[in-house]
């Protein structure tokens, strides 16, 4: 099992920045990639960004490209999401997730952290 704990959410004004962290523990050697997702009430969970645990290959949803950056610190078993130029539409609960090799769906999830962007 892998346990994941997010932190770093909060309230920020439009145009501001936040950095989310997700610390993984347990059987972290089983992780192939890490991702960030977000969800607002009444909507489905949306993919935001992902990064491979070893190679650093990244992917982003179009709406955050150029504003968000995903990165890892393997020594700390932590994945980060640097969010710049935040917009009110970025307001959501942000979740980190871990994917095992061969899985088609993310296997482990954190509890989520609230990000609120005021206009």
What is the ordering of alpha helices and beta strands?
A: EEEEEEEEEEE
Unreliable residue runs: none
Classify the helix fraction into a percent range. Answer: under 10%
Distance between the termini: 40 Å
Outline, from the CA principal axes? Answer: globular
The SS-based structural class is: mainly beta
Taking the sheet with the most strands, its summary is: 7 strands, mixed
Strand content: over 45%
CA-atom Rg in angstroms: 13 Å
How many strands in all? 11
Mean pLDDT: 95
Provide a count of the helices: 0
Write the layout of secondary structure elements.
Blueprint: E1 2-7, E2 10-13, E3 18-26, E4 33-39, E5 46-52, E6 58-60, E7 68-73, E8 78-83, E9 92-99, E10 108-109, E11 113-118
Parallel strand pairs: 2-11
Antiparallel strand pairs: 1-3, 3-8, 4-5, 4-9, 5-6, 7-8, 9-10, 9-11
Q: What's the gist of this structure?
A:
The protein is an all-beta fold and about 120 residues long. Helices cover about 0% and strands about 55% of the residues. The protein is built from no helices and eleven strands.
């Amino acid at each position: 099992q892998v346990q994941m704990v997010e932190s770093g959410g909060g309230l920020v004004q439009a145009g501001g920045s936040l950095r989310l962290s997700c610390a993984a523990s347990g059987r972290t050697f089983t992780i192939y990639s890490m991702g960030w997702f977000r969800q607002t009430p009444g909507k489905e969970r949306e993919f935001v960004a992902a990064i491979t645990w070893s190679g650093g290959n990244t992917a982003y949803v179009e709406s955050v490209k150029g504003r968000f950056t995903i990165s890892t610190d393997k020594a700390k078993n932590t994945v980060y999401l640097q969010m710049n130029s935040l917009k009110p539409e970025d307001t959501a609960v942000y979740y980190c997730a871990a994917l095992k090799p061969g899985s088609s769906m993310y296997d482990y999830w954190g509890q989520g952290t609230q990000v609120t962007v005021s206009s």
